Amino acid sequence: MKRRIASFLVLAAACSGPKNSSTGGSAADSKPGELKPSPAEEAKQFVARVDEEVRRLLVASSQAEWAKQTDITPEHEAAAAKAGDELNRYTTKTIKESRKFDAVIDQLDADTRRKLHLIQIGGTPAPDDPKEAAELAALTTEMDAIYGKSKVCDAAGKNCKDLGDLETVLAKSRKPAEQLAAWQGWHDTTGRAERDKFVRFVGLA
Fold this sequence. Notes:
Elements: H1 2-14, H2 39-70, H3 74-98, H4 110-121, H5 130-149, H6 163-172, H7 176-204
Helix pairs in contact: 1-2, 1-4, 2-3, 3-4, 3-5, 5-7, 6-7
């Protein structure tokens, strides 16, 4: 999940830099009688539009994700999944749209070529089916929540430790058996809870 978030940040970085108001239009916006933009100009307009929309979606997704991470509730999980789905869909759409410039890539300036390349590698396309895309976003959010909420308890169901407690054990304990118990307990607990979900996640991703 964190890898996907990092990929979206790469997509945002692809289009970062000073904004140019002259690139805000598109070929589709051209009025009758106006000249169609050259491939180079159209590519610049495309990355400018991606820049603006990705910034908006990333802010919304980051805010929803922060709310979920700091207060894991069904409402926050649903909001994070919705924001993630919107970002996934836009990423998929822009990756596909960017391919139309492959045929004229040699006509583009180095900066535009770099941005287009980063857009194409900046995320994993979501499924074309809207229902599957929404399911993928929901699964990602649910698995992340399980990871954050899981606890490891002793055989009697007591002395439970969350992720922070276990990280402290792994960082500070000098007892191999205690470290192994912390590591294995965490992976067994989260693994069982996420196993079936992860299988479905792989099938969708």
